[in-house]
Amino acid sequence: DALTGDLLGETEDNMRILVVGDGKVGHVLAEHLTREGHNVVIVDIDEEALQRSEDTLDVMCIRGNGANAKTLIDAGAQKADIIIAATASDETNMLCCLLGKRLGARYTMARIRDPEYNESLSLLQKEIAIDNAINPERATALEISRLLRFPFASNIESFAKGRVEMVEFRAQEKDVVIGHPLKDLSRRLHGIPQVLYAAVERDGEVFIPNGDFSIAPGDRVHVAADMLTITSYFRFLGKNSLRVKNVMLLGGGRISYYLAKMIVPMGMHVAMIEINPKKAESLSESLPHVNVILGDGTDQELLEQEGLESMDAFIAMCDRDEENLMTGLFAVKQGVPKVIVKNNRLAYADIMNGMGLDSMVSPKTITCSTILRYVRALVNSDGTKVERLYRLMNGRVEALEFIARASDPYIGIPLKNLHIRKNALVAVIARQGKVIVPFGDDKIEEGDHVVIIVCENGIGDLNEVISK
């Protein structure tokens, strides 16, 4: 026990974090957490996975079952600040959190994915002492449902309890904002709604644009404002003409199940293709308003037979990323206006963007971002708390939401008189239900939700970005 204490280190901001499960998510999490200066112990039964983590990360590895009290004690659960249970089994994750809490861990998080558990989640959390339950598939479905609301967008994030939205779109030749310096837009384009241009990616390079920056065709642009302004901005650009009515889902997994549940009530007609007869039958029963088709969705003839060309949106969510990418590209070629694919390999993202596949969702990335957000909020529970954290542009840019406190040194001072670090931008201030796109004379007040855009990772406190 004393040895574990030494190995885990004892500094103030360093948290002792126990990651149970060394799969894709566990490994990426451990990598980010060690980079942010935390002491991480990984627990898994797979010796090969642990060896890989030991070789590539600065972590301590313990071989054993995370649902076994002895293993957890060996890993130092009794002194852990956080236990993150991310094995492939929901039951193991729940048991691990229950045992960890009983042994003395301060905070527990579990990945729980089965729709069966979703119904009774709040009761489970209370009974099993799980502080936070993460459902990657449901979170992914939620993200896709937002993309179907704004079909021209490649990505949408929301802040300040949903009042602020940040939307990513690809600029096209015909867009009226092309070629004008941003500071001149409102003068040259009469009546254009005021949004904040938060970040732009051009030829693989990321910019946080200033007033002299001009948008070029092909740029991937992130704009932020309240929902009403964002909607009228895209109406001004003429991008809101497409309404999604008919949707085809490839694969009948959990994401498809959650997504169908969300979008059928929005008035969308859903066709779902599933290759496994048993699964297709069970989906037909549980989703009576969905047209479930038994067949191989990677078969292009079947897709054409089932009316792929008449679809407003095609969403590929098979287990294999390669199948999703290939069928996604086929749908783009067939002229489907909105194509979304599930893809956990970031390396593919840039290549596919170049081929017209702009919208990709990654359950792995969503899970990691969600967990990192909670960890940062806990680390800074005495500093300015990170309420939300989003990775944009394949992780090269972060959008962070903080709540300003009365004691912060920048309160009440106009932004133009403050020092804001290089490659950072105060994007939005939300105050008592009102959303402000800030300029030099605006001030941050106590209790404001402040959204910051930064070109780096690991920022945990607003004071690291803004100073007097």
Describe this structure in words.
The longest helix is centred in the C-terminal third of the chain and has 17 residues, at 363-379. The protein is an alpha/beta fold. The chain is 33% helix and 25% strand. Strands 3-2-1-4-5-6 form a six-stranded parallel β-sheet, sandwiched between helices.
Describe the secondary-structure layout.
Layout: H1 2-8, E1 16-20, H2 24-35, E2 39-44, H3 47-56, E3 60-63, H4 69-74, E4 82-85, H5 90-103, E5 107-111, H6 115-118, H7 121-128, E6 132-134, H8 136-149, E7 155-159, E8 164-170, H9 185-188, E9 196-202, E10 205-207, E11 220-226, H10 227-236, E12 246-250, H11 254-263, E13 269-274, H12 277-286, E14 291-294, H13 300-305, E15 313-316, H14 321-333, E16 338-342, H15 346-354, E17 359-361, H16 363-379, E18 386-392, E19 397-403, E20 419-420, E21 424-431, E22 434-436, E23 449-454, E24 466-467
Parallel strand pairs: 1-2, 1-4, 2-3, 4-5, 5-6, 12-13, 12-15, 13-14, 15-16, 16-17
Antiparallel strand pairs: 7-8, 8-11, 9-10, 9-11, 18-19, 19-23, 20-24, 21-22, 21-23
Helix pairs in contact: 2-16, 8-11, 8-16
